[in-house]
Design brief:
This protein is of the alpha+beta class. Helix content is 27%, strand content 24%. It has helices at residues 7-12, 31-39, 59-68, 71-81, 190-211; strands at residues 22-25, 50-51, 90-98, 112-119, 131-134, 143-147, 154-158, 165-166, 172-182. A hairpin with an 8-residue loop joins strand 5 and strand 6 (143-147). The N and C termini lie far apart (53 Å). 28% of the residues are buried.
């Protein structure tokens, strides 16, 4: 029985090491299955990431989750990125609404080894919020690659101190799934405090922009 993920397409995707190890797969989920997953996507009425186990979703989305957590995808990603994911725990979060402060330039925290992003939007539905793989943490327009958040598109990257990424701000429907293989490293103290301060500043700026 064939699954939702096109594992062969994912396996064939070319890995780029610049500016950090990543690969992009358009149609990682074939269109029909991606649309079924989108129709069964968790109903979330507000912005922000939710742990998928705290949401309600339909059977096609549950089928996709089972595949994402499986060893077949884990082994492909491990081989392509040259990283051992054998005993890595998995966390999956979902978003359905974007706010102005989402998509700001950032890197992922050291508690993550690998980030997998999947999208479930019809073409044009999420505006110009293409995910961009950035050369630095300063300029959203200085990117090496980008991918529209369309049905079935996937981005996978190794989490490093310079894994800068982001997208243009938008308000509205933007369906995305983020899966992380965890490193076991706990982020505490100064690092977490800095991230909280940055997030708080970005939220304030977003509210000011929204009021303008």
């Amino acid at each position: 029985m064939n699954g939702m993920l096109d594992l062969e397409r994912i396996r064939r995707a070319q890995v780029s090491d610049k500016p950090f190890a990543h690969f992009i797969v358009e149609g990682a989920i074939p269109l029909g299955d991606a649309r079924r997953s989108a129709e069964a996507f968790p109903a979330i009425g507000e912005p922000g990431a939710k742990r998928v186990e705290d949401t309600r979703f339909g059977p096609p989305f549950e089928e996709l989750l089972d595949e994402l957590k499986g060893d077949a995808l884990r082994n492909i990603i491990a081989e392509k990125l040259g990283i051992d994911l054998t005993n890595s725990d998995i966390v999956i979060k979902v978003r359905s609404q974007s706010r102005l402060t989402d998509g700001n330039i950032h890197t992922d925290t050291p508690e993550k080894l690998v980030t997998v992003l999947l999208y479930f939007n019809e073409p044009g539905e999420a505006g110009e919020s293409n995910l961009r793989i950035l050369k630095n943490g300063r300029n959203l327009d200085d990117f090496i690659a980008e991918i529209p958040p369309n049905l079935g598109n996937m981005v996978v990257f190794k989490v490093t101190p310079d894994c800068w990424h982001g997208h243009k701000p938008m308000i509205g429907k933007r369906l995305s799934l983020q899966m992380n293989y965890l490193s076991g490293v706990k982020t505490r103290g100064k690092h977490q405090l800095v991230r909280r301060l940055i997030s708080r500043t970005r939220r304030k700026l977003g509210r000011l922009v929204g009021q303008a």
